[in-house]
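Dear support,

I submitted the protein below through the web form. The confirmation email said the job was done, but the results page showed an empty box. After a refresh the structure appeared. I'm attaching both so you can tell me whether what I see now is the final result or a partial one.
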Amino acid sequence: MMQATRQFQRAATRSRGFTLMEVLLVIVIMSMMFLSISKLMQAARRTRDTIHNYQEMQLAGPAVLELMIRDIRGLFTTSRPRNTWLEVTDRTVNGQDADRIDFVTTTDSLVVGLSDESQSLRADVNEVGFMLRPNVENDEFLEIYRREDFGVDEQPFEGGSYIFLSDQVKGFNIEVFAEDGPDAEPYDAWGERSGDEELVGLPAWI
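What the results page shows now:
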């Protein structure tokens, strides 16, 4: 009878639960599993972000160039001094080409103005420019902005609102030609600030 009671006590002791070592072992195994899963999730997120950035860059580049070409084709010079027609500035930001271009265009304004009666207005002729700034999150890229000033004033290359276009720009180099032909020399700067009176007005092509 005593022997049966001892066996029953041993069996009851065994069925009370897990030992501390067993619990710790399970926690370690679960932690390793969660760590592996989190690493897989991070890798998946990085891959997704890389694909998204690449697709965005592929779409943004042609869209920005199309907007720039449209504005330049509408370059407006009528009844205005030659030194206010076009300004191209040779710039470098973080060791990368970051040229700037400013002019007046007949492209309808993207920035909406307000009249005295608080009605939305769009100007037919506007000051426009494109410039680059450092990308604060990634030194390998630059940010490009479109400057627009509603209407035209006495300082067509200054002021206005800046609209963000893209933060995936590797460089922006503008070359201006004073004459046509395969042997024409390109200029990095154009306008009154270039210091050359022959480089003021309209170039042959950009």
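Response: this is the final, complete result; the empty box was a page-load delay. DSSP finds two helices and eleven strands in the chain.
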